[in-house]
Design brief:
The chain has seven helices and seven strands. It has helices spanning about 15-25, 50-55, 80-110, 120, 130-150, 190-200, 225-230; strands at about 5-10, 30-35, 40-45, 65-70, 110-120, 155-160, 210-215. The chain has a seven-stranded parallel β-sheet with strand order 3-2-1-4-5-6-7, with helices on both faces. α1 crosses α6, α2 (about 50-55) runs parallel beside α3 (about 80-110) and α3 packs parallel to α5 (about 130-150). The longest helix has 29 residues, at about 80-110.
């Protein structure tokens, strides 16, 4: 009988994390969800080593997937140092710490890691929140580095860089189904992002590591339309 696959998903109470946890559950995975709000198996900060160890203890020492979906959205003003420190801690340091603590369990399973990132940072800048942009650019460098570190143990590490997603995380600058800044004309829903994450965790993506998958409706391939400047 095939052993049940196990995943830790941070940020699992809402948005992309919740959509992914539901998808994996329907596919037969054992999902240990982690979030700061109730409604998941482990409640706490995704960057807290003790909380991460608690989640890991529930996997039985063998971890097939780690998905870091927890994150803070852009905040302002741009020069607020406390905001800079907190967004870097949650969006960049916490995924690093999660990988560090889960490495041995991932190696035991030849597991896969996906960091949920954003097109902001590596592709676009942010006037409001350079900390957010820096964290999202930085996580791509982190993923490439961890892909090299994990390769010898069969651990794959990839990034899903999301565009505008219709969740409370993304500010609604225009109607979700009327986005002139997106060639497909709309925001994604969370499950559309989760579908790509699920693929990257599976055997079909067994030769994919160190890659950034942009899931943005084509936003980064068209000339820029700035909704802040357009008044929408």
């Amino acid at each position: 009988m095939e052993q049940q696959r196990t995943a830790i998903v941070t940020g699992a109470a809402s948005g992309i994390g919740a959509a992914l946890a539901a998808r994996l559950g329907r596919s037969g995975w054992r999902v240990v969800g982690l979030d700061r709000v109730a409604g998941v198996e482990v409640v706490g900060d995704a960057g807290d080593p003790a909380i991460l160890d608690d989640a890991l203890s529930r996997t039985g020492g063998r971890l097939d997937a780690l998905v870091c979906s927890a994150g803070l959205p852009p905040t302002g003003p741009w020069d607020a140092r406390d905001d800079w420190d907190e967004v870097l801690r949650v969006n960049l340091t916490a995924p690093y710490e999660a990988f560090r603590r889960c490495h041995d369990a991932l190696a035991a399973a030849g597991g896969a890691v996906v960091f949920v990132g954003s097109i902001v940072g590596a592709v676009e800048g942010s006037r409001r929140s350079p900390g957010y942009a820096a964290s999202r650019a930085g996580i791509e460098g982190l993923a490439r580095s961890l892909a090299l570190i994990g390769a010898g143990d069969g651990i794959r590490v990839n990034i899903v860089a999301a565009g505008a997603v219709n969740t409370p995380f993304d500010e609604l600058l225009a109607p979700a189904d009327d986005r002139p800044d997106v060639p497909l004309g709309r925001m994604a829903d969370a499950d559309e992002i989760a579908t790509v994450v699920e693929f990257l965790l599976g055997a079909e993506a067994s030769y994919v590591t160190g890659a950034v998958w942009r899931v943005d409706g084509g936003r980064t391939v068209q000339p820029g339309i700035d909704l802040y400047r357009s008044g929408r």
